[in-house]
Write a structure and sequence with these properties.
Heterodimer composed of CysD, the smaller subunit, and CysN. It comes from Marilutibacter maris. GO terms for molecular function: adenylylsulfate kinase activity; ATP binding; GTP binding; GTPase activity; sulfate adenylyltransferase (ATP) activity. APS kinase catalyzes the synthesis of activated sulfate. Catalyzes the synthesis of activated sulfate. This protein is an alpha+beta fold. The strands form five sheets. Strands 8, 9, 10, 12, 13, 14, 16 and 17 form an eight-stranded antiparallel beta sheet that branches. It has a seven-stranded mixed beta sheet with strand order 1-3-4-2-5-6-7, with helices on both faces. Strand 3 and strand 4 form a beta hairpin. The protein is flat and about 95 Å long. It starts with a helix and ends with a helix. Bound molecules: 3'-phosphate-adenosine-5'-phosphate sulfate (PPS) and adenosine-5'-diphosphate (ADP).
C-alpha cells in the first residue's frame, strides 16, 4: 500500500487523501519541477525520493533490475528510472504527463508534480503549476538558460508561483566552476525580474552525485546557501492574504434532511466565525453564519485552506458554484474580463466561438471577443494574433453569458483561475487566469421595449422564425431560400432572405474565408437574424456556415421552436459539377484558398430539423417541404 501511494498519476485522489492523512500534522509543500529533457530532472526527483528513504523494498528491487536493463549509468542505479514510470515515456526517453509523487522528511511532507520538459507538453506543465507553491527550475550547467527555461518560467509566473529554486545541475561536468554558476544565475535573475518572480534561490547541484541535494557539498565551498532539500524544508510560500475577507466557493449543498442545509467547500481566503455577516454571490442575499461544521465537530473559527460546511441563520437559495463572502468585503461581479489564456486545444482558438468556462464549481458560457495580443513566451514579446494555436499564450477579452463573482488570479487562485471547455467535444482547451473586469461590463444595460416580439409577430399574422440553410457552395441554399421567400410572399407572410454573398458585400465586407473570419461572419448574421425575428419576421438565412459550433451558437440565440436548421445535402461532386459561379474550378486550380469542401472543412449537421436531398428532388419540391415545416 505504501509503495503505491508514492507514485501516482493525476487523478489518484484517494491516494492523495490517504497520504495527507498519514502525515496530517506536518506542513505540506507542493512544488513542481521543470526543465529540459536532459537537464536531470528525473534524477533529481528520484534521488530525493530515494535519499529521503521513502522508497520501499519492492520498488528498490524493481529499480535495481530496471537499471541493469534500461539504465544509462553502466549498471549503477539510474534514479531517473524511478520517475520515468510509464513505458511509453521510457521508449521516447521523455516524460509525457504530470505525475504526482510524495515524500516526507522530519520537517515537512511534499507533493511534487513532475512536469514534462518536452516543448509540446507545456499544457501538462501548466496543469502541475496550477497547484504548486514553489517551482524547481532545472538548468544544465553546460548549456545555461534555454528557450525551455524561459517558457517554463513564464508559465510559472503566469500561474502565480512566486518562489523559484534555480537548480544549476551537472556542476560536476563543469568542474564545480563558480564563474559558470554565477553567469547562469545572473541571467536568470534578469529573467525573473522581467516576469515578476519575486523570490529566486539558486543552488549549484549535481543531482547524480548528490552534491547540494540533501547536504551541502564540499565541492562547492564557495557556495554558502542551502541544499535543495534544506530549501524545500524551509521556504515559506504563504501568500499575503492581508485584508481579504472570507471567500468560500460552494462545492456542494449538503441537505441530508429538512432540518439541515449546509454549504460545503474549501475556504479560498479569509477567516470565518459563527455570527459573521456574509453575502451569497451572485444573488447578493445576506445572512449570518450559524455554524461551522466539520467531520470532527463544530469549529469556533476556520481559515483559508480548511474544508468546512457552513450553515446560515436564514434560508438562502445558494447553489453549487456560488461564493459565500464576507459582506463587508465582497468580491466583484462581472461578465466581461481581460484574461490570460494558455491554449491547449488541438484546434485553434477562434474569437467569437462559444466555449464553456469552468471556474471552481461554476460553469458558464463564454466567448473570447478579442485577442489583444499573444505573447512569445521565449522573449515576452507581444504579437498580433487572430487565432491561437496549441501551447500559445495570449491576453484576451472574454465575455460570459452571466456575471460571476471573481478575483484577479494573482490575488486568489480559486476565484481567478479557470479552464475553457469545447462545447462539442467536452475537451479542456485552455487554462486561464482572470486579470481584471472590463469596466464596460457594468455600464451597458438592456433597454426595455413595450412592443415586443409577440406583439410584432401577431400584428403580421405569423410566428417569427429563423430558417437556417446550411450546405456547400452550389448546394442549392440560395435557390431554395429564394423559392421559399417567393411562396411566403405570395401567402402574405413577412419574410426576408439573408444571403452570404449579399451580406458579405456590406455588413461583413471586412471578412474573408479563414476559419476565424467565418466564425465572425456567422456570429454577426445570427445576431442580425435574431433582431429580425424580434421584429416579427420569418428570416431565411442562407450561409455555408460550415462549423457545427457556430450553427449551435446561432440556434441558442432563439427560442426552442423558433430555429429550423435545414441541411441542403448536396454531395461535393454534384456541387462541383454544377459549379454555378466557376468557383470550384478556380479553387481546384489553387486560385481560391480555403475553399469549403476543397481545403476548408464542412461539418455536416447532426441534428438538422430538415435534410434536403437536391439530387433526387427538385428545388420546388424541397421549397414546399420547408414551407410545410414552417407552417406546421
Ligand atoms: N473560400 C471560399 N469558400 C467558400 N465560399 C467562398 C469562398 N470564396 C468565395 N466564396 C463565395 O462566398 C460564398 C460563401 O459565403 P458564406 O458567408 O456563406 O460562407 S461562410 O458561411 O462564412 O462559410 C459562397 O457562396 P455560395 O456559393 O452561395 O455558398 C461563394 O460564392
Ligand atoms: N434540387 C435542387 N435544389 C436546388 N438547386 C438545384 C437543384 N438541382 C439543381 N440545382 C442548381 O444548383 C445550383 C445551386 O446554386 P445556389 O442556389 O446558388 O447554391 P448555394 O446558394 O448553396 O451556393 C443552381 O444553379 C440550381 O439551379
Amino acid at each position: 500500500m505504501e509503495a503505491s501511494t508514492d507514485t501516482v498519476n493525476l487523478d489518484a485522489g484517494q491516494a492523495v487523501a490517504a497520504y495527507l492523512e498519514q502525515h496530517e500534522t506536518k506542513g505540506l509543500l507542493r512544488f513542481i519541477t521543470c526543465g529540459s529533457v536532459d537537464d536531470g530532472k528525473s534524477t533529481l526527483i528520484g534521488r530525493l525520493l530515494y535519499d529521503t528513504k521513502r522508497l520501499f523494498d519492492d520498488q528498490l528491487a524493481a529499480l535495481e533490475s530496471d537499471s541493469r536493463r534500461h539504465g544509462t549509468q553502466n549498471g549503477e542505479i539510474d534514479y531517473a528510472l524511478l520517475v520515468d514510470g510509464l513505458s511509453a515515456e521510457r521508449e521516447q526517453g521523455i516524460t509525457i504527463d504530470v505525475a504526482y509523487r510524495f515524500f516526507s522528511t522530519e520537517q515537512r511532507k511534499f507533493i511534487v508534480a513532475d512536469c514534462p520538459g518536452h516543448e509540446q507538453y507545456t499544457r501538462n506543465m501548466a496543469t502541475g503549476a496550477s497547484t504548486a507553491d514553489v517551482a524547481v527550475v532545472l538548468v544544465d550547467a553546460r548549456k545555461g538558460l534555454l528557450t525551455q527555461t524561459r517558457r517554463h518560467s513564464y508559465i510559472v509566473s503566469l500561474l502565480g508561483i512566486r518562489h523559484v529554486l534555480l537548480a544549476v545541475n551537472k556542476m560536476d561536468l563543469v568542474g564545480y566552476d563558480q564563474a559558470v554558476f554565477d553567469d547562469i544565475v545572473g541571467g536568470y535573475r534578469e529573467l525573473a525580474a522581467q516576469l515578476g518572480i519575486e523570490h529566486v534561490q539558486a543552488v549549484p547541484l549535481s543531482a547524480l552525485r548528490g552534491d547540494n541535494l540533501i547536504e551541502r557539498s564540499p565541492q562547492t565551498s564557495w557556495y554558502g546557501g542551502p541544499s535543495v532539500l534544506e530549501y524545500l524544508e524551509t521556504v515559506d510560500p504563504r501568500r499575503d492574504q492581508a485584508g481579504t475577507g472570507l471567500r468560500l466557493p460552494v462545492q456542494w449543498v449538503n441537505r441530508p434532511n429538512q432540518d439541515f442545509r449546509g454549504f460545503a467547500g474549501t475556504i479560498a481566503a479569509g477567516t470565518v466565525r459563527p455570527g459573521d455577516s456574509v453575502v451569497a454571490l451572485p444573488s447578493g442575499r445576506r445572512s449570518q453564519v450559524a455554524r461551522i461544521v466539520t467531520a470532527d465537530g463544530d469549529l469556533a473559527h476556520a481559515g483559508a485552506g480548511q474544508a468546512v460546511t457552513l450553515t446560515l441563520t436564514d434560508e438562502l437559495d445558494i447553489s453549487r458554484g456560488d461564493v459565500i463572502a464576507a459582506s463587508a468585503q465582497p468580491p466583484e461581479l462581472s461578465d466581461q474580463f481581460a484574461a490570460h489564456l494558455l491554449w491547449m486545444g488541438e484546434h485553434s482558438l477562434l474569437p467569437g466561438r462559444p466555449y464553456w468556462l469552468k471556474i471552481g464549481a461554476r460553469t458558464v458560457g463564454a466567448t473570447v471577443t478579442e485577442i489583444k495580443h499573444k505573447i512569445d513566451v521565449n522573449t515576452q514579446d507581444r504579437l498580433a494574433a487572430k487565432h491561437l494555436e496549441l501551447n500559445e499564450v495570449a491576453l484576451c477579452n472574454l465575455h460570459l453569458d452571466q456575471s460571476i463573482p471573481f478575483e484577479a488570479y494573482r490575488d486568489n487562485r480559486a476565484l481567478g483561475g479557470f479552464i475553457l471547455i469545447d462545447r462539442m467535444s467536452n475537451a479542456t482547451v485552455a487554462a486561464g487566469t482572470l486579470e481584471f473586469a472590463l469596466r464596460r461590463a457594468g455600464n451597458i444595460h438592456w433597454q426595455h421595449v413595450d412592443v415586443d416580439k409577440a406583439a410584432r409577430s401577431a400584428s403580421k399574422g405569423q410566428a417569427a422564425r429563423c430558417v437556417w440553410f446550411t450546405g456547400l457552395s452550389g448546394s442549392g441554399k440560395s435557390t431554395i431560400a429564394n423559392l421559399v421567400d417567393k411562396r411566403l410572399h405570395a401567402m402574405g407572410r413577412h419574410a426576408f432572405v439573408l444571403d452570404g454573398d449579399n451580406v458579405r458585400h456590406g455588413l461583413n465586407k471586412d471578412l474573408g474565408f479563414t476559419d476565424e473570419d467565418r466564425v465572425e461572419n456567422i456570429r454577426r448574421v445570427a445576431e442580425v437574424a435574431r433582431l429580425m425575428t424580434d421584429a416579427g419576421l420569418i428570416v431565411l438565412v442562407s450561409f455555408i456556415s460550415p462549423f457545427r459550433a457556430e450553427r449551435r451558437m446561432a440556434r441558442e440565440l432563439f427560442g426552442e421552436d423558433e430555429f429550423i436548421e435545414v441541411f441542403v445535402d448536396t454531395p461535393l461532386d454534384v456541387a462541383e459539377q454544377r459549379d454555378v459561379k466557376g468557383l470550384y474550378a478556380k479553387a481546384r486550380a489553387g486560385k481560391i484558398p480555403n475553399f469549403t469542401g476543397i481545403d476548408s472543412p464542412y461539418e455536416q449537421p447532426e441534428t438538422a430539423e430538415l435534410v434536403l436531398d437536391t439530387v433526387s428532388q427538385s428545388a420546388e419540391d424541397l421549397a414546399e417541404q420547408v414551407i410545410r415545416k414552417l407552417l406546421d
